[in-house]
Amino acid sequence: MPDRGGGPQGPRIRVGRPSRRVRTLLMTLGVLAVLAMAFVMFAGFWTDWLWYRSVRYSSVFTTTLWTKIGLFAVFGLLMALAVGVNIWLAHRLRPPLSAMSLEQQNLDRYRMGIAPYKKWVLLGVTALVGLIAGASASGQWRTWLMWINGVSFGQKDPQFQLDVSFFAFDLPWYRFLLGFGFAAAVLSLIAAALVHYLYGGLRITSPGARATAAATGHLSVLLGLFVALKAVAYWLDRYGLAVKSSDFKATGNWAGLRYVDANAYLPAKTILFCIAVICALLFFATLWRRTWQLPVIGFGLMVLSAILIGGLYPAIVQKFQVQPNEQAKEAPYIKKNIDATRKAYGIDDAKVDDYQGVGDSKDNSQLRKDADSAASYRLIDPNVVPPTFDQLQQERKYYQFPTTLDVDRYKGQDTVVGLRELDLKGIPKRNWINDHFTYTHGYGVVAAKGTAVKPDTEGAPDFIESGLPSQGMLGEYEQRIYYGEKTEQYSIVGGPQKELDYEKNGEPTKTTSYKGKSGVNLSNPLNRAAYAVAFSEPQILYSGAIGEGSRILYNRTPKERVEAVAPWLSLDGDAYPAVVGGRVQWIVDAYTTTNGYPYASRTTLGDTTADSLSQTDSQRAVIAQQNQVNYIRNSVKATVDAYDGTVKLYQWDTEDPVLKTWMKAFPDTVQPRGEIDPALMQHLRYPQDLFKVQRELLTRYHVESPSQFYSGSDAWQVPDDPTTGEKSSVPPYYLSLKMPQEQDRKFSLTTTFTPNGRPNLGAFMAVDADASSKDYGTIRLLRVTGDVPGPQQVQNRLNSNAEVAEFVRNMKGANSDIEYGNLLTIPLNDGFLYVEPVYAQGNNAYPLLKKVAVSYGRETVFKDTLGEALNAVFGEEGETPPPPGDGDDDTTRPPPSDGDESLQKAIEDAQKAYDEGQEALKQQDWTAYGKAQEKLQDALQRAADAGARTEAPAEQGAEGGNPEKPGSTEKPEKAAEQDGKGD
Q1: pTM for the whole thing?
Q2: Mean pLDDT across the chain
């Protein structure tokens, strides 16, 4: 065999250090990887800074950033020092020689392994706990800013006589400090115990003493600190009772002190505080006594006291003092809860009036006249007609309207409004250039009358602003929509690449180039690289479509922009557009909240503001900085320019202490209320989500009597939406109406209530929603005292109407679907008028208004127009008789005639009067008996008149000019017999 130079062992393989070239390559790759990671982190920070600077709210970015950095540094350093010092101290206090035991011999291996790296282990452990603690503390930036900038509420809690600001601003920060102290004490105790054990200061199985004197003293001090913090916790818990949330069987959700809290828990917490202080002193005393006997006894007594005094004693008080006479015991505390809750939610000035609700039918002619002025009946439902807007005004597939349109006022009339926004899914050819450079904006406002349809159509809206470009009563304004509710993608504008402006049939395509000042300039290579990384889009870095003047637009939805510049505000779910001063402005209602208002019951914003609309349109969900709140104010009105994205915040509630606190923390971000343009003021309105929160609270807190509140006898509920068939709350409706005792109609936000567990109408609520009105925000409640059908009952009555059944059959036969519009409720002459538009939608078509249903008292009609329906329900001229029925089928039987209806009512009244008379005879109340006889005579006379009208031939018509309604089979003789029963 040939010699290969390896000797008898074969060739020798030399393993040495990598070559210099390889080492250089590896080092270079490592450096590049670190730089890449650093640039990714830098890109996020840099793009955020550029965006805030572009919207001129850089102070929000810097204030938030420096606050987070400060909290991270301070509390991270404190935690690292606390743990590090105790590790170092435990190491210093280690015994000079460890016992020669099997336990210590096993630990020697770990001691020897750690010895060369003790400093690095110490640094690593302290750095880790410091980073975790610092990251946790930085998340408390809102708590810190509210504490350091908090202003007085000017109101004191009824128990401790402390300003509300203590509970709203101070107590949350103290609780954070306490929690941080507990974490530092526990981590230090664990770390010190481990070090003492490792170096022999603590022994588990070795003979002799279990701990050295040094270890005993060190750990005792840490335990003493822990117990001292527990004493502080007991003291703060006393104040926490005022904002504590609990379940109270009698009233449900409860906040604040109850009888057992004030008379058992409060003194118990004080006693436990004293015991904990003594116990902590006993632990500190081990520095001199070097024994744990007394502190352990003290700690055991403290635990036992916590069980007996803090748990058992309150339970005994509740069982034997409160429960036997709970209503009387809890009454003072219920009153405090009622007052605080009404104040915290701004419902303390709600005006509650009794309202019969059954209506006055003596003068139908006057009722018909009053109905014309009672309200501006909105027949165009903004929740139903968006597909109609799409079909008639979309113009191009790459435009879209929102799922729910908005209601506004133009020239004094209620108007349904929508913006023609960009829809990328409708672009003919999807690619990066088209998506982000060519198709960049929507175009124009489309508005229709809310109260009427277009004449000589099949029920289409009557547009007052339409076409592309839009034309109509709104005049000249900037129509390009670069910022909107549906505009979620980024666009790059203003550079060499032209944008599609709009296309109109028969005309050349219009192009444009963005002239606004919003967005971030991409001319800088650093900016391009940062956005390429931040958006994971490398083409931004090298695309030739980006050049001089190119700007990137993002964060383009109104709520997204307001939330970014004011991260301390909660936002209403419904942003709405208005044409103001030649520009389209998005208006966003913003709230300040807290969950630290003493005695005020909490509510969950996400649940309380949910209704049948928000469940189908996620964009209408409230944006809440804290979901559980017990104080809310619509303190800020914000606007976002639809063309250049300019965000403005206006102070609306000038008395709100929470807003004043945030204005101190972020100076010059909120403009004074006086800066609001009068033209803009005409479009500001009462926000829906605040109204929904208030109506939910008013289901219980309209009652101010503690005894009545306790019994729940007058509790209400928000009814389910009768038009959807789903278990979801009916949404509130904007409507111009005239409340009782008022002379003029006002733009209002309205809702209804039903008694808890019952379907009839319990109350009606309206708030003056016109921001330019002197009565803006005034809440009016009409408590219904009569037996009035509720929304679901009215809907059921409508569904069983013969004309409705015939209409539904006809539409189904034509392959059309029926959709019910908003069921509007309007107070009218001691009664309630219900008005509901009904739409039909054929295959591949869009909803058109076909019918109008109206109900008043016991009458429900279904006609082609609102005028015909009002005529019919009040028995005026012009009523069209319903078609004949189809036998005995309840779903097709026509409604009874006016005579039948009046006859039945008269018979019922006669029977009621007769019963009242008999009861008065039993009580020998001759005054009541005389009144009952008068009612009986009146009812019998009405029965006779109604019987005559029923018998009259149809061609003659009824008395008063009303044509007879066919369908009655009752004979006058039978009616007379029934009249006789009452007599």
Answers
A1: 0.83
A2: 85
